[in-house]
Amino acid sequence: DTVRIKHLDNPNITTYVNGKKIEIRNFQAEVSIEDAKAMMAGPFGYELIGVYDDFNKYVNELFVRTKLIQQSSAPLSCVVVGTPLTLHKLYSWDKYTEALLNLEGRRTLHLVFVLDETQGENFDMVESWCELHKEDFYGITLLIWDADKSKAWNRIFRITVNRQLIFKYARTLSSVTHVWFIDSDNIIPNYALKRLLEVNREVSAGLYNFKSVVAGGPVVFNIQGDWNWPPTCLGDQQRKAKPDTGLIETDWTGAGCLLISKKIFSKYDFDWNKWVQRNGEDAWICLCAQKETGQRVIVDTSVHCDHLDDQGNIW
């Protein structure tokens, strides 16, 4: 019931977690899984030891149940809308799905929902919604997998698995030109896809803010940017960005509204490694695309998304 955890910056420190005194010595400590969860959730740069090396093997060996609910017989070129759901985070489902139904060009979209839990009324709700609206989209697929709780308990880790499964599935669909990640707590404008395609980059994105008082402001970063931002778990430089101020070229942005061309998703994967733990899997894929194309990500600030928290607040 214990795991080894490492501090990325400090070799010898004392900290308090869940009311317990934790001694970090030579960068490491052995802690309970619950204490490790709390440490990983903070902004201080902890990582699990030993979970990175076999990530791709882990994903490739997962048993994934695929349920194809709808796919048009017409050989359309289509965009996969990838939504990596976790069932405890469906408070925004009504507004999110309303936005999907209002999207311009929705009949060229193939929705792919990835769920890592298979029980309960929330799963039934997603499945029922898909059956109800299957004629509104080019295709709808559910990917269902059972998380290995010994490795995949971390929230970010599960999301990374989900995103990688979406890439893997998109590669099996010959008509797909792009994968468009829309997180279920991001509410997108109906013209979003048209605008992002018009940017004509291998990776383009909409604009949204972090949904937190502490981690506030736009999810737009440079390796070296406009101003420093304190939390060391991101480490890069946050950009100043406001809605409807044109196109912003940047090094990376979040995957809450991220359009990725086949040139990128056919070659690169989301990954879980030590750098990702500090910066995020969305930053990873943006920088892979930059390496491949020599071009940075374009954020279209006219595609302004509402980022909802579980209290209904818009950030």
Can you describe what's shown?
With 315 residues, this protein is of the alpha+beta class. 26% of the residues lie in helices and 30% in strands. The longest helix is centred in the middle third of the chain and has 16 residues, at 155-170.
Short descriptors:
9 helices, 315 residues, alpha+beta, 3-stranded antiparallel beta sheet
Secondary structure layout:
Elements: E1 2-7, E2 13-17, E3 20-24, E4 28-32, H1 33-41, E5 46-48, H2 55-60, E6 64-71, E7 78-85, H3 93-101, E8 109-115, H4 121-132, E9 139-145, H5 155-170, E10 176-182, E11 186-187, H6 192-199, E12 203-207, E13 220-222, E14 237-238, E15 247-250, E16 252-253, E17 257-261, H7 262-265, H8 274-279, H9 281-293, E18 297-304, E19 306-307
Parallel strand pairs: 7-8, 7-10, 8-9, 12-18
Antiparallel strand pairs: 1-4, 1-5, 2-3, 6-9, 10-17, 11-19, 12-17, 13-14, 13-16, 15-18
